[in-house]
Design goal:
Layout lengths: L1 E3 L55 H13 L3 E12 L3 E13 L5 E4 L1 H4 L2 E7 L5 E10 L4 E6 L22 E6 L7 E15 L5 E8 L11 E3 L5 E9 L6 E5 H14 L5 E2 L2 E6 L1 H7 L6 E7 L15 E5 L2 E5 L3 E5 L2 E2 L3 H11 L5 E8 L2 E8 L1 E2 L2
Antiparallel strand pairs: 1-12, 2-3, 2-5, 3-4, 4-7, 5-6, 6-7, 8-9, 8-11, 9-10, 10-13, 11-12, 12-13, 14-23, 15-16, 16-19, 17-18, 19-20, 19-21, 21-22
């Protein structure tokens, strides 16, 4: 299970000792080691380092990373969130959590993860010159674990990071993470892009699509910090690690950031597209049991009264049946495509809508009704 980068961490260091069992064998006495006579007082001292003329020039990659850190480091910030939790015995208990973020523009907008600032009663942003300033929440998108803060700092004192293009990434490319793991400000770690296009299920039952997987070390406190390419362009926002594993971290792709953040700045929230119905993934086994004419798609079960599917004339379930030890609501339409893009599962349907459509946009659904294919136009609603 993927877990969010925790705000607080406690370390236990376990030291174990063991001894192997066996039969004791007498060993020969050690041979005395010859003693080296001391050097005369006037002997020259032995060199402790190679002379400069024997040293190789600085490695190109080393110089690249050094320059990158010098340019990007001042734009990465340390975020402290003041949180009040309820204690059964003592009532409200104030505490603090930390995370990372980076400067988005000269208007003082800071990008971070939603889970870094979730439930905070106060926020403080600390810059590389140790200045600490209060921050306000401008907008949040829990579905993609993104949040935008704003600080009141003169534009001349802000250096926004340049955003790259996550669509151009390839597995094996260099990845650099900068953040504040365990409160250690602006720590740099390096690795490669391990995989692309991952779906990442979050703790709030949302799924972030096209996530970047990297082996660059991401630890608690890195949340919200930038993942960069070798040129120093932001390619993602570090968001999670896989519990119990090493070298498996995830970042929200920068193209999602470029799509979501301007809307958060303008409106405070992102309107995710919504069809307004529930249903079941169709598998070959379910299709055979229910006598369905297709083996992939969505069997529509229930319609939301306030959703767009009902006025569009989509049909929900008419009856219920028991298959194995499960109850199914059947008799509704079967969704096979959206805008002529095949629908094979709920996840693929959600992914298509999230990445290719917007709330308020009209889409064309391909449905099977009474074994006949029909096409229905629907205006997407806003996910409640």
């Amino acid at each position: 299970m993927v877990r969010k980068i925790a705000i607080f961490m406690v370390f236990w260091l376990l030291v174990g000792c063991g001894a192997s069992r066996g039969t004791a064998v007498p060993l020969p006495l050690p041979t005395p080691t010859p003693t080296t006579p001391p050097l005369p007082a006037d002997s020259p001292a032995l060199p402790t380092a190679l002379p400069d003329d024997l040293l190789a020039p600085i490695d190109v990659e080393e110089q690249l990373v050094t320059n990158l850190y010098g340019r990007v480091g001042p734009s990465v910030v340390h975020i402290t969130a003041q949180v009040v939790t309820m204690n059964f015995f003592f009532g409200p208990m104030p505490s603090e959590g930390t995370g990372s973020g980076f400067v988005y523009d000269e208007a003082g907008h800071i990008i971070t993860n939603y889970h870094v600032i979730q439930g905070a009663t106060g926020l403080t942003v600390r810059f590389s010159d140790e200045r600490s300033v209060p921050a306000q929440v401008v907008g949040v998108d829990p579905a993609n674990d993104l949040a935008v803060l704003q600080v009141d700092v003169p534009p001349a004192e802000l250096t926004p990071l340049e955003l790259g293009d996550s669509a151009s990434l390839q597995v094996g490319m260099r990845a650099v993470a900068i953040g504040n793991p365990f409160g250690l400000d602006r720590t740099l770690t390096m690795g490669v892009i391990s995989a692309l296009g991952r779906p990442l299920e979050t703790d709030n039952n949302n799924t972030i699509f096209n996530v970047i997987q990297t082996d660059a070390a991401i630890n608690p406190g890195n949340s919200g910090g930038p993942l960069l390419d070798s040129r120093g362009l932001v390619i993602g926002v570090n968001t999670a690690i896989r519990e119990g594993a090493q070298g498996i971290g995830f970042a929200v792709p920068v193209n999602t950031v470029k799509r979501i953040v301007p809307v958060l700045i303008e409106k405070g929230a992102y309107p995710h597209p919504w069809l307004g119905f529930l249903g079941y993934d169709i598998s070959p086994e379910l299709a055979q049991a229910l006598g369905l004419p297709v083996t992939r798609g969505i069997l529509i079960a229930q319609l939301y009264r306030e959703g767009p599917a009902l006025p569009a004339g989509i049909r929900g379930a008419q009856q219920q049946v028991i298959v194995g030890n499960r109850r199914y609501l059947v008799g509704g339409d079967v969704l096979t495509a959206v805008n002529d893009t095949p629908v094979t599962s709920w996840m693929r349907l959600h992914e298509y809508l999230e990445l290719n459509t917007q709330a308020g946009e009209m889409v064309t659904l391909t449905l099977l009704r009474d074994n006949q294919e029909i096409r229905v136009e629907l205006i997407l609603g806003v996910q409640p």
